[in-house]
Amino acid sequence: xxxxxxxxxxxxxxxxxxxxxARAIGLAAALAMLALIQLAGPGISERLFDxxxxxxxxxxxxxxxxxxxxxxxxxxxxxxxxxxxxxxxRLTERLAQGGAAAIGFDVTFPExxxxxxxxxxxxxxxxxGPARDSLMALPSMDAVFAEVIGRNPVVLARAGxxxxxxxxxxAAATDAALLPVEAQFTAPLPPGVGSFDRALSNxxxxxxxxxxxxxxxxxxxxxxxxxxxxxxxxVGGVPTPGFALELARVGxxxxxxxxxxxDGGLSGVGLGDTYVPVAPDGRMRLHFGPMxxxxxxxxxLVLKRxxxxxxxxGKFVLVGLAAAGTADVVTTPIEDETYGxxxxxxxxxxxxxxxxxxxxxxxxxxxxxxxxxxxxxxLWLLPRLRLPWAAILPVxxxxxxxxxxxxxxxxxxxxxxxxxxxxxxxxxxxxxxxxLFVEAVMARQRLAAAxxxxxxxxxxxxxxxxxxxxxxxGMLPPVDRMTRLHPAIDLDGLLEPARTVGGDFFDxxxxxxxxxxxxxxxVTGKGVPAALFMALSKALARSALRRGPADLGAAMTGLNDExxxxxxxxxxxxxxxxxxxxxxxxxxxxxAGHENPILVHADGRAREVPLEGGPPLCAVDAYPYMxxxxxxxxxxxxxxxxxxxxxxxxxxxxxFGHPRINAALASWTADRPAGDAGTALLRAxxxxxxxxxxxxxxxxxxxxxxxx
Amino acid sequence: xxxxxxxxxxxxxxxxxxxxxxxxxxxxLARMNETIxxxxxxxxxxxxxxxxxxxxxxxxxxxxxxxxxxxxxHGVPMALARPNDRLRExxxxxxxxxxxxxxASRDVAD
Lengths: 708, 110
What we know:
Chain B: This is Anti-sigma B factor antagonist/stage II sporulation protein AA (Anti-sigma F factor antagonist). The complex is a heterodimer of chains A (708) and B (110). By secondary structure, chain A is α/β, with parallel strands linked by helices. Chain A folds into three domains: 12-52 and 361-443; 61-353, no CATH class; 477-705, Phosphatase 2c, domain 1 (4-Layer Sandwich). Helix content of chain A is 41%, strand content 20%. In chain A, β12 and β13 (274-277) form a beta hairpin. In chain A, α10 packs across α12 (340-353) and α13 (363-381) packs parallel to α15. Chain A starts with 9 loop residues before the first helix and ends with a strand. Chain B has 110 residues and is an alpha/beta fold. In chain B, strands 1, 2, 3, 4, 5 and 6 form a six-stranded mixed β-sheet that branches. The A-B interface holds A 1-3, 500, 522, 524-526, 570-572, 574, 591-596, 613-616, 618-620, 643, 647, 655, 695 and B 2-5, 21-22, 34, 57-59, 61-62, 65-66, 86, 93-96, 98-99.
C-alpha cells in the first residue's frame, strides 16, 4: 500500500491514552502529597527522629556532667526555697572542695537575699541600739556568696527576654548590652542566630564575680517537646553563650568560643578541640539519652559530711531545682517529663563529646526532590513491571530508605526523613494504580455497553434478516402453480436462503397457451435493501415480460433502464430469462450477467449452454441485450442456478464448480420430476460444504420439456 | 485485502491482493476510487492488476461497476489485467469482460 501514513504525536497520544491519564493522576497525587506534607509541617519527621532516639539513646563518650538536685528531700532537710545565699555559698564551697571543674547554677539570683542583715533589721523595727548595730555590722549573705563565687569556677544563669515575655519589664532596669560576658567570641554571630532584647540576670554583686554566664532559654517545639538547646545568641547585640556551652568552656579553662559560619549562616561552634554542629538559629539538636543515677546527687547530701571525697572531681556540676512548684519540668523526645537541669547536663556531655544530631539545612528540600524523582521513576517503571516485581520493588525501595535513614542516624547523627520521599512516591504509585483500576473498570463497563449494543444490533439485524427472508420467500411463486403452468412443461424451483439472506429470486408465468416465461435473478447485497431491490427487480421483470415481448433482448434492455432508474444504492442484479414454447421445445434465452443454463438430457447427461449474454442489469446503461435461441428435445431439461451453488465452498476453499453441478444432475433423468434436480444439487452442495456456513442463497430452477 | 499502487509511464496501476468479498469490498472500492483520482491528477489510465487477487464476489463486481462510473466521470480509461482462471471465469459469467478491457498481461493493458 502506498501513500503517506499519518503519524500522531506520541506525547499527546500518550496523554490521551488510559496510561497517560493514569500517570498524570499519579503525578498530581504526588504533588498533592508534597503540598500536604508541607502544610503539616515538620511534626511527622520529628516524631520519627524522636523514635530513633528512644530506640538508640545517646551514650556520650564523656559523661562528665553531674547534677546536684535541690529536690524535695533537700528542701525538707535544709528549708524552703529560696535558701539563704549563705547556704548556697556553703554548697558551692563543698562542690569546689570536691574537685568540681565548674559549677553552674541553673537558677537565677535576680534579687538580694532576703536574709541579708538589712533585710532582717527591716523586718524587726523594734530592734534598736547595739543589737541593731551588731546585726547591721554582719556581712550580707550575698557578699558571702559573691566571695565564694569569686574564688571558684562558677557559672551563673541568665534568661534572654523578648518583648511580651514574663519579667520583660522587670529587666528594663538593666542595660543588656552592658551585662558581663566572659566568653570571648572570635567572630560576631551571623544573621539568623537568635536574639534577645533584654535579659533577666543576677544581682550585680554576684554577676560581677562569676567566672561565666550562660543563657538558660529552652524553648520547646510547637508540640511542647524540647529537642534543641540554645548554644549561642545575641543579648542586646552582644554574643552570649548558652548555659551548657559556658559551663563546658569554664570547666575546661578555655577562653574563646569560635562561631563557624557556612553559606552566610551559623553551622557550628568550636570550643577548644571540640566542634558542635548547630542550626543557623544557634541551637543544637541534642541527642537525648538517660541521666545515670550516679550522675545525680541531692543537694542536702552535699551539705552533710560523709559524702565520698572526689565525687565531683573533674565534674561539670549543675545545680538545679527539682521540687514541686520550683522545678523547670520539660518534655523531651525520650521522656514525657524531666527536669530542665537534666537537659542542660546532657547538653554539657554532648558538647564535651562533640556529639550532636545534624539536620542539614536543605534536608527538607532534598527529601522532597528525592520523593518527586522516585515518583517519576515509579510512574515510568510500575506499568512496565509484572507481579511480584511491581510489589517487591517499591516495598524494597521503601525499606532501603528506612534502613539508610537509620544507618545515617546511628553512624553519623544525621537526620534524614525517609517518610517524606516514601509518602510522595507512594502517593504517585497509589494514584497511578487507582487510576488504572478505575480505567479498567470503566473499560469493562464500556465493553459491556458495547456488547449490549452489539447484541441489540444483532437482534435488530436478526429482525431485519427475518423481514428480508419473509420478503424473499413471500415473492416466490407457489410450487403447485409452477407445476401446473402447462402440461407439457414440468417446472419447479428451490431457494435456500443463506443465514444472512442474499438476493436470489426466481419466477415463472404463463404468457399464452403455448409460452411460459421463467427467470432466475441474483441481486448483489444482503439484507432488507437487497430484498427490496429484488422485489423491485422481480416486479419490473414480471411487468416487462408477462405479455410476451416481441423482442426479448429489447425487453431486457428496457428492463435494465427501468431498474437502473430506481437504483439509489448502486446495486445490480444478474438475471437469466427464458421463454419456452411448450409445443415445440424452442427456448429464447437472454442472459444479463448470470450463470449460463445447464442442458440435461433425458439420460442425465448435462452440459452448459454457452450464451453470449451481457452484463448484469444496472451495470451498464442502455446495454443492447440479445435473445439467444435453443431447442429442447422431449425429455430434455434445463437447469438454472445461482452462484450459491457454483461458488459454494468446501472447508479447503475449493469451489463447487460446474463439473460437480453436471455430476449431481446425472441422476435427474427424464423419469424424475423437476423438483429432483434442485434436491440433488442441494444435497451435493451441502455434502461438499461439509457443515460449513453457506455464504449465499442457493437457488435452482429446473424445467423439463415433456414434449408437445 | 491488501492494496498497493505502482506507476508506469502513462498508467497508474492498482494492485489488490487477497480476496474481495462481503468483508473487504468497501475497502476495495475506496482504494480504487483513490487510485482513480490519482490517475486523473496524473493524466494516466487506471489499470487494475488482478494477478494477486484470489477471489472476487458479486460485491467486488458491484465495486468494479461503481469504480468504472467514477473513472468515466474523471475521463480515466479503466482496464483489468492478469485475472487468474477463477476471476476470468467470474468476469466471463458476469459478462464484465464485455464492460472492461481484460488482458493477460499488464503491458497490453498499459
